[in-house]
Amino acid sequence: CLILSFFSRGKLGRYPPWPGKIVNPPKDLKKPRGKKCFFVKFFGTEDHAWIKVEQLKPYHPHKEEMIKINKGKRFQQAVDAVEEFLRKTKGKDQASSHNSTEEKNRRNSSEERGKQSAGEEKRKASLSEGKVKKGTGEGKKRVSSVSSERGSKSPLKRAQDQSPRKRGRPPKDEKDLTIPESSTVKRVMTGTVAGFKWPPSVSEPVKDSDPHFHHFLLSQTEKPAVCYQAITKKLKVCEEETGSTSIQAADSTAVNGSITPTDKKIGFLGLGLMGSGIVSNLLKMGHTVTVWNRTAEKCDLFIQEGARLGRTPAEVVSTCDITFACVSDPKAAKDLVLGPSGVLQGIRPGKCYVDMSTVDADTVTELAQVIVSRGGRFLEAPVSGNQQLSNDGMLVILAAGDRGLYEDCSSCFQAMGKTSFFLGEVGNAAKMMLIVNMVQGSFMATIAEGLTLAQVTGQSQQTLLDILNQGQLASIFLDQKCQNILQGNFKPDFYLKYIQKDLRLAIALGDSVNHPTPMAAAANEVYKRAKALDQSDNDMSAVYRAYIH
To answer: Which BP terms from GO are recorded (predicted)?
Structure first.
């Protein structure tokens, strides 16, 4: 069975659609309790998910609408894969139908030969009868009796009697070809599914529809019952050789409808590009969240979604068990904790503070020390991703500090990200995050440099992108950023000023251990040039403009 699945996000956005195929789950994978759902493998990826039955809708009436919503190249490739699957399936059905027709023809030929054989037998019997007539009268009577007995049935009827089967019961191969419903579908259809109408059975006529119609379903869901790809689909703590720990609930823990939210009260400070998506997912997964933002108007949307409003950072910390913060830079992080009515004033023994800002190791170490000095617990947890990944609950979380607090945050991390890593003592996550963003920022500058070089040498920028997308560098990041440049659309998904900040901090990290970072230094200069051209509040891909001015 095939599906076209998209995951709604209410007032705060929407997941893109994605086609997939209903398959049998692995034997060791338990079905979510109390939920009627299918196990789905998605086309174009190796991802899997449990999809609730009541969240399924027909494919064909919604196909064009879904294609309009998602114009991404990877999605179109997935749709093409579905169409190819259909063509192959249709070809098999046609071949099966052709074989059935040939079988009918063979049987008809056999019956015809049977008729001819019966006619020949009658002719021989007549000749024999004539010969016997020349004999004695007793012989005449005997032959006459036999002839009368044979004549009581027509040659055709006798041929039918000789046939190995009765004509009223067609052979198995001769029956109308239908696509059998899976036992899973049959079981599900017998139950009551509120608000959902199954498409007609295959045996029923389906007007203007593909014969495989009932195999195509559209999933309308808040989030799938179990997240993708990781076959165990349960929260795993993986100890790696490096000593780091990774909490993984699959390829996307934020789309895990089976998450049990912590009963602890959650606070969140900072509703920027990243913070907004994080809070949205926390609320969707059932967490109790109190929010604060320097610009109070940003809180309104989340209050409507069920969040509570905190008047100051200190108030949020004092009324919540675990408070997260996500702000722009080291200065903002320090001001939030140490400033008037700041976090530190709300800290008392047992209160927990998780800083998700991307800052340097010295800053996060200083914040940890002051929090712990008041009896609080501290965890750094910067995130790798962008606004879209934040909205989709697909962030990668890098954590370090209080291991117990890290485990207490597991349901929150599952709601906001696809994977989280525990990297040991405070400062390690900050260093790792800067290294990750250094690589990303340098790559972005190289992409921009390549596109401008193509342009000035008379080469097609679109062709360059097509070539890159077919090679080893192919990635969502590459495609999206190149599309931004080709379309001249630099709406921020990751602010240029912040990637430049991270490059600067990464270079300083290298300096602190006397390690050369010439590539990052060169990229940093290009971003500084872009900032001078008033590109700070645009997306990082606007670094392209530094090359054309």
So the answer is: transcription elongation-coupled chromatin remodeling
